[in-house]
User: Fold this.
Amino acid sequence: MKYYFLTDDSEKSLAPFFSKTVLSACFIGVVIICISLILCWPRQPLAEFVGENKIPMVFFIIFAATLIINSYINLCCGCGELIRRGFYIIKYPTDLATFEKENDFFTYGLIAFLLHSQMMLLLFLPVLILAASISAVSFIPFLQAVSILYFAALLCRMFGFMVYLIWGRTSTLGYFVARTFMIFFIFGTFFFAPFLNPLQILYLLNKSTGDIGLPFALYMMMVSFAILLLIGANHFLVRRHQREKGI
Amino acid sequence: MCHSYLNGSKTTTLIILILMILAIPLPSLSASISLEYSIGFNDHFQLNTWTPVTVFIENKGRSTHGTLEALVTSGSEYDQDVYQAIYATDVELPNNSKKSYALTVLIRSFVHELIIRLKQNDTIIISNSVSLRPYFTEKSFAIVADNYLSPDILSRLPNRLFPVSVSPKFLPETYYGYDSVKLLIMNAATIRGLRERQYEALAQWIKQGGYLITTAGLNYGALVENRIRHILPIEVLGHQRLFEINSLAKFCGRKLTSKDPFLVLNVRIEDSHVLASESDIPIVIQKNFGHGQIVFLTFDFTAPPFRRWDGERFFWDKILSLQSSISNPMMELDNQKILDAMFANLPASFPDFKTGGLFIGIYLVFLKFFLIKIRKPGKQRLKNSCYLLVIIISFSALSYWYFFYPNHKQNFTYNSFYQLDVSGRDTPAFGKYIIGLYSLKKSVYRLSLGAFSQPVTHILSKRSPKKIPNPYVLHESDAGQRILGVLNNWSDNFYMMNSKLDSPLIGQALQDDHHLTITVENKLPFGLVDCLVYFKKRFIFIDDILAKKQQVMKLNLSDLKKTEIFNDREAERIINRLISKGSRSYLKTMQRNLTKEALLQVHNKYRSTRDSLFLIGWGQGGLVQPTFMQTNPAGKRLTMVNWILPVEITS
Assistant:
């Protein structure tokens, strides 16, 4: 099996690792996070926070921003929007089948998504560590927060890919469905299912007033379950496509 | 069939027996344990003082162990600052045993009930609530500790005190349990019968300025006991028969006469001062013990003719007036100012903004560079991708080791400040010790401030929004006193301990026409730096005082006269000189925050004093060594010494 996502920059690849658009999007994301960190850097000395029993929320702000940015980039990558956008859509309205669609999902698309989401998150890592040190978040909550970011990104990626498989990359409906899902997952769950809200868990990790093992485990369980469902759905849709095309 | 019937009968009987056994109610642990307690002195206590609580626990059941707790509630619901201070001790109760346990608690309010309870793990076995309202007083106590004393002696004791008779078994086991006691009357046989901890507490209390009146009565056997000889080295010469004691007229304004003869004990006490004697027989003898005093009466004050004497009240008034008062600390630095100063030097900080900004900037430059590189297809892509990976990992590692790990280490820190007021060889030095604990995480700690029990209280910083302290327990055990507490994340707790100790500084100051010569012997384990002397309304810097050494310092009086009389400008000059020597050390920050108030206090209090000098010095160490169990937090210690020294003028 060839790993086209590592080598191919064309429209045939849904989100190639080394494409200019994807890398630029990631870099802009890191720049935004860095600027946010500089803006949120505590102006008061640490003693004043302790004296007033205030907790610096830098960790929450930076991780929440990373969550939104990274999940959005992954959603776009899943939908294949980062490669085929603007000018290309107008010039070549016919959508080309991608490697992700033509290859078996378990042996190609899933591996690409898992690796790509990890790589994207890795770019943010030094800044995330710095943010955690300001809020004095311990190593275990830090790892928990990073895994929240990763799982959220993966969920968005899987959902984006499902949207792509159902509606293709040029569908307006697909565009809105993907974004509605992300908005619902990151913000809407706060009102409907707080235990599923990643921002809420990140906030609790920043506060770390006690053991948040249960909310974290519940969140991870539910998100993992959703990812598994989406993996299953994506696999089914890819197989259906392959059967239709006789691949 | 008969056989099977018998078998069935046996089974039924067995079942009935088992049911009967199960039906018998097993006595619970609480039913087999009973509590008796005594609060204060014969159930009286003075508000805002340390008060002994003695609890007798009887266990009629199986042997058990647990924790005895006294919960003292203070504060007001209106101000929303109600909190419970918990005083605890470990309890071991063999079966069929009765044991006594003593706690010393600080009662600030009579409004709330005092709770005494026995806990095993988290289960409360027995709990009693005591209403404090009927038992408080605002007067200090005159205690008569004797099991067989007629209560009418109490009516003869000075009115300005609250006289109370206490069974010796309820006397405190800590020296600060006598906090509210002004006068303690106890005969030698009672001292002999005290529990070891009670005796040690008594001796310690007298050493620190307590006042004990004792006698032997007719039976002077107790006087040869080691315990008595330790505090009162007495030589008994025998009984003498007297009919009158005329010398008491000079002593208290009334002579003591009797139709019948009565016995007095002729004794000699080393290094004592006879206050009244009759025909070379001492009647009232005063002996200093540490910074306190013991008065030995050679007659039996519990028996006639003393008991029928019309001068009894005058006698006790005179006895009370003999107590030398120990002056208050010379410098009263505001606790909140000290807390602010300690906060300003909290041993933890955020990562430096400039370093963080630089780190981010460099990372972005590297990231951009390699992201551009890896875009280009070709053989170099893989190599550049590896470089990018190395860059990300390196920056992550750098971020961890430079920012994350050092911050992780400062999650729980402390700093402490000891203010020591020394006023003379015969006066105890007053120590005020404040320790601040700071935590960025929720932390459980066990803190020991020394081998002996000390009166420890919490202080709240006014800058903190919280009105009550983080929860803590003052726990007594064989290993000593511990403060067991929990700190919420991003919070602090301050504890204060007041103590009296032997003066660690000895010296003298001699003034002649040209010089002021100061001889100092510093017994502290650390030297004193940035020493300032206040003399004739002026502050002048002197040499550092070295640790464990005797030192002579000579000040030229003409230099002193050249110095400006203390004023605001001088204060600024002194502070600038102090802080210019160092940048942001704990010593310098504390000096910056506390020196001005200290200088002003000294100037206002001693500007009219011409025959003494005042010395302020700083020691970068502590007389109290805080020890944390299971954790080893980073901490800083500092001592400020204030010393008043009389100046002798030589020709």
Q: What stands out?
A: The two ends of chain B are 127 Å apart (CA to CA). Confidence is low (pLDDT under 50) at residues 1-6 of chain B. Chain B touches chain A through 49 residues (CB under 8 Å). The first strand of chain B starts at residue 33 and ends at 39.
